[in-house]
Amino acid sequence: MRRLLLATAMVAGLAMPALADCPSDAAIDAFAKAILAGQQSPMLTGMTSLEDGFCAQDKLVAKLSAAWGRPVGYKVGLTAPPAQQMFGVNHPVRGVIFESTVAARDGAEIPAGFGPGPQAEADFILRVRDDGINAAGRDHLALLRHLDVAIPYLELPALPIAGRLDAPNLLAMNVAARLGVLGAPIPVEATQEFADRLANMTVIFSDDTGKEIARAPGRAVLGHPLNVVAFLIEDLKKQGRALKAGDYLSVAGYSAPVPAEAGRTYTVRYEGLAAQPVAVSARIK
Predict the structure, then answer these.
(1) I need a surface site. Which of 38, 127, 167, 259 has the fewest CB within 10 A?
(2) SS3 annotation, the chain
């Protein structure tokens, strides 16, 4: 088809705009090496569609998994309309998380240089119980039947691309997924009461100075965290993919990311999710 379009343009004597393509293997190899070295790169060029971005992401994930461990789930970004508008899209985007992404636990000390452009933000994880979730649709109780735990989560993303991003590059850099810190898991209950707790909980992001960085209700992401799960299932289906048992789903950015400063301790606290408030913290050393 590409050859036919080019030939047609040449015969007609018309100027033909450059056709976008997935970044080359060499470009992604250099990008991956920079990420692993903790260095930021300029934007990848030649991409004009989300399909280009996904193609680049697949190549990058394959290279990073050799250093960061196998993929164990997904991160969903742009879960609020203002963030989507900044990137010119009307829906969230997804990236892949690795074994190392979910290795740290509450109270961990994380090296300050954990990635290029290190950041911290309030997040939340749901874990898949079984692959029946792929047929659950958008019904909240049906989705809950196929989830086993909810996990407090301090995300520690990294920005491997310097400067203002576009949507294809956001996908290409795997939606900035890098590290995270998990709190104590909370068993999921397939009840309306538990679904309401997810929607009505208050998520508070703060640091050790006592400063409250952000505060948001559970429903701040697509109206409900389970709506993010439903979106992810549908988004994966478009590429012939599906969730599987044990997948970690990072479903919510409850704050804008802030620079992860050395010497600071960051905490995400959840009120209304469990009988008593729960939290997860990490110190950047």
Answers:
(1) 259
(2) CHHHHHHHHHHHCCCCCCCCCCCCHHHHHHHHHHHHCCCCECCCCCCCCHHHHHHHHHHHHHHHHHHHCCEEEEEEECCCHHHHHHHCCCCCEEEEEEHHHHCEECCEEECCCCCCCEEEEEEEEEEECCHHHHHCCCCHHHHHCCEEEEEEEEEECECCECCCCCHHHHHHCHHHCCEEEECCCEECCCCHHHHHHHHHCEEEEEECCCCEEEEEEHHHCCCCHHHHHHHHHHHHHCCCCCCCCCCEEECCCCCCCEECCCCCEEEEEEECCCCCCEEEEEEEC
> Which residue segments constitute the domains of the chain, with CATH numbers given?
22-284 (3.90.850.10)
Give the model confidence (pLDDT) of 252-262 as tens digits: 889 999 999 99
pLDDT tens digits, one per residue of 88-122: 999 999 999 999 999 999 999 999 999 999 999 99
The predicted model gives 5-31 an average pLDDT of 60
pLDDT > 90 fraction of the chain, expressed in percent and rounded: 89
